[in-house]
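Progress against Task 2.4 (sequence-to-structure conversion) is shown through the following example record, which the project officer requested during the mid-term review.
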Amino acid sequence: MGNKLPNQQSDSDVRRRRGIYLLPNLLTTAALSCGFFSITSSINERYENAAIAIIFAIVLDGLDGRVARLTNTQSDFGAQYDSMADVVSFAVAPAILMYTWALAPLGKLGWIAAFIHMAGGALRLARFNVQLEVEDKRYFQGLPSPAAGAILACLVWVLIEFDLDYNWLPYATLILTACTGILMVSNLRYYSFKDIDLRGRVPFIVACGVMLAFSIIFAHPPLTLFLLFLGYACSGPLHTILMIHKKRNSRIDTDQ
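Structure tokens generated for the chain above:
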């Protein structure tokens, strides 16, 4: 009587399966709260706080996946929750930040540019979830939404820090905001850095390079982060051009 059939489950097994892992989802919730804080800060015209909140969301978004893999607490719920949090933090929050900060004077054009970024982020994450099992883990298809959101957030942060003249700002922001949205839904390939083994041994020179990189970033975080994320955004088109050039040369060699 005390034995149960193989296909029978106790109430405790069902409850355990219905539960969620606390630590990675707690980090995802923290990232989501940063996105919401950014939105409310933009509405209240605290633009620098809004931009920095998006950067914090990026850090937390990177940590939740790493923690889930290291602690073997990955779940379908966590993956879907992370995507919804990313839509808020890297699609909605940057779009609202750019619209309230610079695009509103442009009227419908500004609204359209902000919407392109927001819709591009949502579509990018939906496509990522659908292709999760089939895509090449070494590359992302389209600009990742955290990088797209970081470009816009760091732009705001840089210009506020340097207190630059804003006469040209709405038009430059219009182009950049629309471009980030388009890059997210493009077929350009971006290196994912997922094949880097953080637990393995590295040469001492690599450790020195990492320390140098951190010192450069901390010397002026807004500018260095903006240049890093902008360079990453440009790496997709550059990689595509190099691949086309390589294929063209291989065809010429084959014909000869």
